[in-house]
Amino acid sequence: MKRNLRTIAIIIFFLLFVLYAGFETLKLFLGPSLVIDNPKDLSTVTDPSVTVSGKVKRVSYITLNDRQIFADTEGHFEDKLLLLPGYNIIEIAVRDRFNKEVDKTLKIWYSNTASTTVK
């Protein structure tokens, strides 16, 4: 009876170990994740300063318009950009430690409503 209980306990421990290892290994195959909260793609803004923010998972490197930025320990990132009047393109790219890469492009229209005309 004791031998059967020990065998069952070893089998259950081994199965739990395999399930845990499989769950952790799955993260390696998923690659990096990037979610952009602000600004929304194809939006129009009237302020030349825009805050780009979002959340990343499983990343080791983040760039915003080819400039490295950093995320906090929970994966949140935030950085400010100064827009030019008219059409602006914002590129955000993330890479994990296995060089899998995800990138997103936002198109923002900055409408300078406070511009003055010269006569």
Descriptive overview:
The protein is about 25% helix and about 45% strand. With about 120 residues, it is α+β, with helices and mostly antiparallel strands. The chain folds into 2 domains: about 1-30; about 30-119, Sandwich (Immunoglobulin-like). A 5-stranded mixed sheet has the order 2-8-7-4-5, with no helix packed on it. A 3-stranded antiparallel sheet has the order 1-3-6, with no helix packed on it. The mean pLDDT is about 90.
Poorly predicted sequence stretches spanning 5 or more consecutive residues: none
Q: What structural class results from the helix and strand content?
A: alpha+beta
Distance between the termini: 100 Å
Largest sheet: 5 strands, mixed
Radius of gyration: 23 Å
Q: Which band does the percent of strand residues land in?
A: 35-45%
* Helicity, as a percent range: 10-25%
What CATH architecture label of the largest domain applies?
Answer: Sandwich
For the record, the count of structural domains works out to 2
